[in-house]
Amino acid sequence: MTSSGKALSEKLPEFSGGINWFKYASPQTFYPLAGRLIPLFGWPALVLTVVGLYISFFVAPTDATQGESYRIIFIHVPAAWMSMVIYLAMAFWCAVGLIFNTRLSFMMSQALAPTGAIWTFVALWTGALWGKPTWGAWWVWDARLTSELILLFLYLGYMALVAAIDDPRRADRAGAVVALVGAINVPIIYFSVTWWNTLHQGASVSVTSAPKMASIMLTGMLIMALAAWAYSVSVVLVRVRAIMLERERNSDWVADRVAQLVESHR
Amino acid sequence: MLKILIAVVRRDLLLAWRRRADVFTTLAFFIIVASLFPLGVGPEPNLLRTMAPGVLWVSALLATLLSVTRLFAADYADGTLEQMLLSTEPLTLIVLGKVTAYWLVTGLPLVLLAPLLGVQFDLPQGAIGVLSLSLALGTPALSLLGGIGAALTLGLRGGGVLLALLILPLYVPILIFGAGAVGADAAGLGAGAHLLLLAACFLSALAVSPWATAAALRISME
Amino acid sequence: MNWASVGDFWAMGGKGLYVWGSYAVTLICVFAEIALVRGRFGGVLKRLGRMKHATDRGVIDET
């Protein structure tokens, strides 16, 4: 499988219409590109956060049924979205890595995992703080909350496995198998928990039947979501740069980089 | 093809027979965990009856988790696994054979023993039948998914805890449908839908996990 | 403008604990992540620079 993947990755550039997408598949060329992209995502993230927070607190009106506590959704919903999107991105990079045998893809997924786990935690935490005044309970065994909790376990399992294996090649691939099996499982888990929940009638409130949102609230939420997305991209790029340097510390390009830096500090 | 499968199953069964004590450890663990629950929550029969499906299923799940680390460990230690990877026979088939033998040794006894524990929890007769049926459908899926985790954590320090973190989330649907089947039957809703979903879980695990386990073994042994 | 006074703003209609609890923990998470990631990146660079310094002076072999 590995050899055929390699052969494919060597052949593919011929078919990609002149642009060599695999050019950026090597850490050597991706490292400077990532460095240039970080501020391009970081600054918009900051601006969008400020604008989003302003709309969330000063423009969006008080909700008629929930009062002020609904303002938590401006971070809760983006966090929940990011937790799922990042898991999908992680699984995507793992699949790319296994198929094309590119080590950068595995580094990407390893850089994504901690950020995804943090967003999952934030989604759970804010969900609890929103649930208490709204439903009167910190935690209900609702399908979404339960799936989110299991998503956190999937992130932790992936990170623990990658951390436990010393050989980076084995860590990459073993982690990829876990991430992909998890990705297949996420929809099944969500469906099973929904099914379980409807039978048991545990949660008397349904999270799905959200009242129609005023458009300014929706705008605020979307801006916050964009901010969270831009923030995640920039922080993941910084992390992937660190991982690249750690993993490739014996290669020539890292030596060149370090030499340049040392030179500039003199 | 079938010949290899049978050969692998026979070999593993023979090995398991020579190490009978291991099988009994798993069974004893299952019984002890299930018996601890009434001591923890009190002897109230109605409460126990409603808890029984969940308790027995979680116990079965933990028993599987405890024993599945041994699925490849012995073959890994004595180098047989390397031979298997080098053999011309498809690794997926060998994996399937090993998981089958493993289920016959640890899963099947759990299925057979469950009615006895069901009586301990005062489950009605019909519910006991459903419990056995759900375990008979669910434990093979547990074994199959456990195989992926066992292959991935092969030879790692702290492998046992890691294995739990990796595969317990994957066990969630099986636990829900399995325990739900018994609960639905006890509630008079009929367990058919749950059992069908459980069978679907088993079949998809059968389709995906021998393949994933073989890939994981190749990665771990590289 | 939604708020009559600063105190009103902090009180959040009596739900201040929940709202500010959520935002505070999110901010802590984000700032902690930024600090950790930057620390990691800087740490790697520093270590590599020190390694280079050592190899240049012949303290350790280049491997």
From TrEMBL, chain A:
Put simply, this protein is called Heme exporter protein C
Q: What's its job?
A: Required for the export of heme to the periplasm for the biogenesis of c-type cytochromes.
**UniProt record similarity statement:** Belongs to the CcmC/CycZ/HelC family.
- The gene coding this protein: ccsA
Record-level GO BP terms: cytochrome complex assembly
Is the keyword Lyase in the record? no
State the InterPro entries in the record.
Cyt_c_assembly (IPR002541), Cyt_c_biogenesis_CcmC (IPR003557), Cyt_c_biogenesis_CcsA/CcmC (IPR045062)
> What is this entry's stated membrane topology?
Multi-pass membrane protein
Known PANTHER family for this protein? Answer: CYTOCHROME B_B6 PROTEIN-RELATED, HEME EXPORTER PROTEIN C
Q: Which residues form the Cytochrome c assembly protein domain?
A: 45-200
Segments spanning the bilayer are 40-60, 80-100, 112-131, 143-165, 177-196, 216-240
Report the coiled-coil segments: none
Main localization is membrane
Q: What are the entry keywords?
A: Cell inner membrane, Cell membrane, Cytochrome c-type biogenesis, Membrane, Transmembrane, Transmembrane helix, Transport
The GO molecular function terms of this record are: heme binding; heme transmembrane transporter activity
Cellular component, GO annotation: plasma membrane
Top-level taxon in the UniProt lineage: Bacteria
- Kindly list the places in or outside the cell where this protein is found, as annotated in its UniProt entry: Cell inner membrane; Membrane
Q: Which organism is it from?
A: Candidatus Methylophosphatis roskildensis
TrEMBL record, chain B:
What's the source species for this entry?
Candidatus Methylophosphatis roskildensis
Task: Tell me the InterPro entries matching this sequence.
Answer: Cyt_c_biogenesis_CcmB, Cyt_c_CcmB_bac
Single GO molecular function: heme transmembrane transporter activity
Keyword Cell inner membrane: yes or no? yes
Record family assignment? Belongs to the CcmB/CycW/HelB family.
- Provide the function of this protein: Required for the export of heme to the periplasm for the biogenesis of c-type cytochromes.
Q: Give me the segments passing through the membrane.
A: 21-42, 54-73, 93-116, 128-154, 161-183, 195-217
Q: Which GO terms describe its biological process?
A: cytochrome c biosynthetic process; cytochrome complex assembly
Q: Does the keyword Transmembrane helix apply?
A: yes
Name it. Heme exporter protein B
Q: How does it sit in the membrane?
A: Multi-pass membrane protein
Query: Which locations, inside or outside the cell, does it occupy?
Result: Cell inner membrane
GO CC terms in record: plasma membrane
Q: Which Pfam families match?
A: CcmB (PF03379)
From TrEMBL, chain C:
What are the BP-aspect GO terms? cytochrome complex assembly; heme transport
Source organism (scientific name) = Candidatus Methylophosphatis roskildensis
State if Transmembrane helix is listed as a keyword: yes
**Can you tell which superkingdom this protein's organism belongs to?**
Bacteria
Record bears the keyword Amino-acid biosynthesis: no
* Subcellular location as annotated: Cell inner membrane
For this chain, the family text in UniProt reads:
Belongs to the CcmD/CycX/HelD family.
Q: Which gene encodes it?
A: ccmD
Q: What is this protein called?
A: Heme exporter protein D
- Topological type in the membrane: Single-pass membrane protein
Predominant location category:
membrane
